[in-house]
Every structure is written in structure tokens, then in C-alpha cells.
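Let's see one such:

===
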Amino acid sequence: MRIVKIHLSGEDFSTAIVRIRDWLDKHRCEPTGYRYDQIDETVVMSVDFADHSQAEAFAKRFGGQHRDRRPVTQQPSDAVGVNRGSEGLSA
């Protein structure tokens, strides 16, 4: 699994989600999962991809960082937001 983390402005979150969903649809990328947490005015979004090339393309387009695996026990200790399901990415 490849995970891409991107940082979004909390003020522009809904607009960013639409841009992300449009890009994913256009490039026929289907993430295997995602999470987001709000820290102050920033939303940190983690998007999981099964395909390495899709993860790289997504990271390049949205200025994210990617890595190959998510540690099983990793939990953001200072996150204010709540992990959410895929309903937030629907256009």
C-alpha cells in the first residue's frame, strides 16, 4: 500500500475535495482508503493507493508526500478531527 499525505487549508477543504475527486475520476484512480484530521487551520489528508504510479501522480499533482506503508499502530495524538469514510469524496 502507498500512502500520500497532503495538507489543505481548512477554509478551502470542500473546494479541495471536489478538485481531488475530479482528478481521481479523470485519471481513473481509485484509492483504497483515506483519512483526514484537522490540526488548527490545516486539514491533513492521507490517501491510500494500491498502485505505486497512481500514488506518485497524486502526490505530484497535490504537492503531497508518499511512503510505502502505514504503521498499524499509528494514531495522530494531537488531531482534532475525526477519521471519516469515503462519503466525503463524493462529487
